Amino acid sequence: MNLATLKGWTGRLPWQWRFGRGSRARSGDVPWGGMVLIGAVVIYLSLLLLLPALNVGVQAFAKGFGPLMEALSKPPLQHAIKLTLLMAAIAVPINTVFGLCAGLVLARKRFPGRTLLLSAIDLPFSISPVVAGLMLVLLYGRNGWFGGALADSGIRIIFALPGMVLATLFVSMPFVAREVIPVLEEMGPEQEEAARTLGANGWQTFWRVTLPNLRWSLLYGLVLTNARAMGEFGAIAVVSGAISGKTETLPLYVEMAYKQYQTQEAYGAALLLALLAIATLILKGLLERTGVDRHGH
Amino acid sequence: MRGFRFQRRRLAGAIAALPKTIGRSWSWPWAVVITYLLIMLVIPTAAMLLKASTLPIADIWRIATEPIAIAAYEVTFITALVAAGFNGIAGVATAWVLVRYEFPGRRLLDAVIDLPFALPTAVAGLTLATVYSEVGWLGEPLAPFGIKIAFTRWGVGIAMAFISLPFVVRTVEPVLRDIAIEIEESSWCLGAGPWETFRRVMFPQMLPAVLTGVALGFSRAVGEYGSTVIVASNVPFRDLIAPVLIFQRLEQYDYEGATVIGAVMLLVSLALLLMINRLQAWGGRYESRDA
Questions:
Q1: Which end of chain A, N or C, is less surrounded by CB atoms within 10 Å?
Q2: Which of A5, A113, A266 has the CB atom closest to B21's CB atom?
Q3: In this structure, is the dihedral angle defined by the CA atoms of residues B267, B271, B273 and B274, taken in order, positive or negative?
């Protein structure tokens, strides 16, 4: 079938590459052509990444500290913060359990259809978030498959919290699984088998042997899951209806405020999300040094 | 053709064998994985494709090939291809600079590359729309020349370049790092110049990684919504992209229109996923030699 050979699959996706492992060349070695190349790269990255990132901070503080604080204390924004935290608080544990289970199944067992399952876990990466949201609307919306049954029992999923949770779960699904499976593959079953021959049951083996070996990569997966869960826009925009003060998360608030020319509010919320991004990058960097890299290339 | 049929038979075999394997190796993790994937992936995907297929073929064709939809595909795919392709070149240059040279600020540059993964897309769209607007830091110097970036197709391109930037860099970087310096040195010793060494010795080794990175970046750019919707004016035939069109169809309660265009995008994503898997397997050939 060769949908994905495992070699291809364990090949990391770009955000899994660890950075900062030192360059090969020594300083003072840079030839003339190299200088030009460095200059060109720095200019390109400045125009595309650095200046826009810097702009978030500058715009947020453009009118000073007072107006920023005032914007941040508005009730709809406060509500958006709480909702965003809630999304992460629900999505991260559920996708962690799923990721661990996927790891135990896919790294420890051989069965036909295994590569198919591995590819299926990757699907949320390649499906457009808007299409993901659309799929949920077609299932749970008023005219959807389960729409009638849900309406009869008075449960609202679309334009309400459950739909937003489902959308967040969908887009942040693969991160933990993607981190955990290669580590389990590398580890091999020997330690677990040893634990079992010494009389440990399945749960004890998992809790005392498997999980401690996974801790760093698991944490790495958690950081990425959290960033995606808090930052998701497209899928949530489709299913939530973006009702201000009710189903509006921080990214939705950013767009809504910008559209209504509330620049200060938009950049206040954007600043919070940018801080989240910086924290994610720092944690990612720290974790890469502690040893998630052990199983790297 | 034979290869394709063979693959299809194996795929069908794998699906047919699934219930048996599940029965044989029942365990709690199994149950969780299968249930979760069914609820989250299989049923939603099936619902959309089935919903699309209940329409008469003529209607599907009409909705999928409406002028406004065709224009949206054109904007989406061509702009994404240009952005991802440009990042193919810029990404190789960036990876080269990061691996080969030591200079002040290298580590900062290295960390900044991952920013598009970490920064929520709404924030990216907001700040790009500001910076590249006619009164923004980077848009203002261009305005006298009649070049507008934000709220035009250029803006869509910039947003797509932003989110697809890390893919090529992060796929090429490790390959470049693993290329044995001896291979390059022997090319020099045999009399090849710098350009010839790059073109005939280095580039062939990097090619699978470059193509994988471009394909990943393209796939991401095609599906992107958050940053592009903010930085574009979303006018049909000018800078309206397919994901935004789906969103607008839904807002107008045109579920059929949204479903058909959504199904087209879903099939494109599936095809891209398949292609990326193939590319990674091809790249794996090079990797396994070092391992």
A1: C
A2: A113
A3: positive
Distance CA A264, CA A246 (A): 21
Supply A228's token pair.
């995606």
The pLDDT value recorded for residue A297 is: 33
CATH number of the domain encompassing residue B129: 1.10.3720.10
Would you call A120 and B41 a contact, using CB atoms and an 8 Å cutoff? yes
Task: Kindly report, residue by residue over A89-144, the tens digit of the pLDDT.
Answer: 999 999 999 999 999 999 888 888 888 888 889 899 889 999 999 999 999 988 88
Residue B159 lies in a domain: yes
- For residues A295 and A184, is the Cβ–Cβ distance under 8 A? no
Nearest 10 degrees: Cα torsion A209, A211, A217, A223? -160
CATH number for the domain formed by residue range(s) A65-295? 1.10.3720.10
* ipTM > 0.90 for the complex: no
DSSP letter for each residue of A34-55: HHHHHHHHHHHHIIIIIHHHHH
Longest alpha-carbon distance in chain A: 73
C-alpha to C-alpha distance for A224 and A222, rounded to whole angstroms: 5
Q: Pick A233's closest partner by Cβ from B120, B262, B283.
A: B120
Domain boundaries of chain A, sorted by first residue: 29-60, 65-295
In the chain, the amino acid numbered B51 is: K
Residues of B with CB below 8 A from A101's CB? 28-30, 32-33, 36
Q: Say whether A297 and B110 touch across the interface (CB within 8 A).
A: no
Question: Cα dist. A152→A136, A155, A240, B224 in Å?
Answer: 18, 8, 21, 36
User: On the CB side of B104, how many CA atoms lie within 13 Å of its CA?
Assistant: 0
Taking a C-beta distance cutoff of 8 angstroms, is the pair B44, A139 a contact?
yes
B11, B37, B40, B285, best to mutate vs chain A, most A CBs in 10 Å? B40
